[in-house]
Structure formats: C-alpha cells, structure tokens
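Database export, one record per block. Field names are fixed; values are copied verbatim from the stored entry.
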Amino acid sequence: MNIKMYIDAIETLCQELEKALAIERIKIYTSIKQLIDDVRSYVNENKEEGNVIDCNSSNIYFAELLSHVMPISGLEENNHPEEQRFLWIQTSINKLRSVRCFDL
C-alpha cells in the first residue's frame, strides 16, 4: 500500500467538500471514511515492534480528521464556522504527513 497516495486522495476529497452540496458531502464523507479504514487496516496488519508506522498516532489523527469532516458532511452538529473546520481538516492531514505519524 502506498500510504502517501491514500493521504493525497483523502486530502483531495476534503478539498471537494468545500464546493459540494449536502448530498455530495455525505458521499464524499463515505469515500473518505473508506480510505481511512483501508489505511487503518493496513497499519494494524503491519504493525510490529519497532516498525516506523505509528499505529497510535495515525488512529488519533484519523479520529481528529473525522471529527471535523463529519459536521461538514451534516452527520454531526456543527458548532463552528465551516472555514474553521476546513482549517482543522487541513491541520489533521498535515499531522498525518508529519514525522510523528507517516513521515510523508
């Protein structure tokens, strides 16, 4: 699995959320969630002691990402401006790329 390609795809889908209508946002969320689940499965299957893939960090950052994507998609109450959510989404993606996670 090329994790970088998956993170790139997730980022592209998150960018599409800004332009999408309500029903499209739900479809985009479903795609994002599937990609995240695929990466999580891969990481869990390949985690070994001393492995460079940090399972805990990736789970934390994926959960953080979804906590912002879900309200934008209309699946949770959104108590923050969308602009702030999109900033947090990008921050979460940057964390996934960081040296503390996948080092992409």
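Remark 1: Residues 72 and 81 are 10 Å apart (CA to CA).
Remark 2: The chain has one domain: 3-97.
End of record.
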